[in-house]
Amino acid sequence: MSRTVFCQRLKKEAPGMPFQLIPGELGKRIFDNICQEAWSEWQKKQTMLINEKKLNMMNADHRALLQEEMVKYLFEEGEVQIEGYVPPEQK
User: Carries keyword Repeat (predicted)?
Assistant: First the structure.
């Protein structure tokens, strides 16, 4: 059975994650407040960010930067700024 959450990113009721994807407090916050659709959007942004900034997930500073961007994107209505990337609708 799927669970519904009020998604803080998309400001609507939507299917939530089937399980907590990230350990700890932040993971619980995402599990409780972010829907699958918003998480999927974040994952696309995350991939672009990792590629753009050549982040190494073995590097603690890089992981911290990515986590900071994730919190901004999911909870603070921030947009991920990716240098040189123009969203398709703005071309």
Answer: no
* Complete DSSP assignment for 18-74: SS--S-HHHHHHHHHH-BHHHHHHHHHHHHHHHHHHT--TTSHHHHHHHHHHHHHHH
Positive or negative, the CA dihedral 78, 38, 5, 23 is negative
Q: Which domain covers residue 40, as residue numbers?
A: 4-80
CATH of the domain at 63: 1.10.3880.10
pLDDT value of position 77: 85
Please give the mean pLDDT across all residues of the chain.
90
Q: For the chain, what is the domain count?
A: 1
pTM of the entire structure? 0.84
